[in-house]
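Order emerges. One example.
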Amino acid sequence: MQQKAPRRTRERILELSLRLFNEFGEPNITTTVIAEEMNISPGNLYYHFRNKDDIVNSIFSQFEGEIERILQVPDGRRSNIEDVWLYLHLMFELIWRYRFFYRDLNDLLSRNRKLELHFKQILAHKIKVAKQLCEDLRTEQSLEASDPVIDALATNMVVVATYWLSYEYVRNPRKYTEQQSMADALARGCYQVLSQIGPYLRGETRLLFQKLSEEYLKKIT
């Protein structure tokens, strides 16, 4: 059986840095800490990355590529409530995988011009997709809302999703790294975002939403 080739040092540095940033916060991790955890010299680290911002930007490029794949509406048909539910699940899973960007967001944006510009674009894209999902539901007569209401719903959905992990961290910082606690937190986040459009749903879609919500609430209570 052919053995897998060992991962390149650059890939290992990015993987370890992401784990450290997520666990301890990006401001608390230096290139020295990363080199020590990698068991390599600082010089070896700087051969692959000029500085910590270079590492952060490389991780952000990975994140950006993954989120662009998620921020897509279904091809050839209009979205339904299950598409919205799936979209939120995938989005929150990705937010958790790269959670340091969201937990340390204000600090990172204040000193990293690339992140500042690109994160604005991501937020705008998220709002555009959320708006499209709502408009598809309205076209199918599954949602009753005016254009201004849909604009507000799309923005509010993105705001809650963006800052949900910060809210959960303040709510219970000692359990922030516990896997089950955060799985429940992400589930609550999905429900909180989707519950914003609940009052505007109509017909069978409203009944399906109620059914999905009941099943969801049982898991997180």
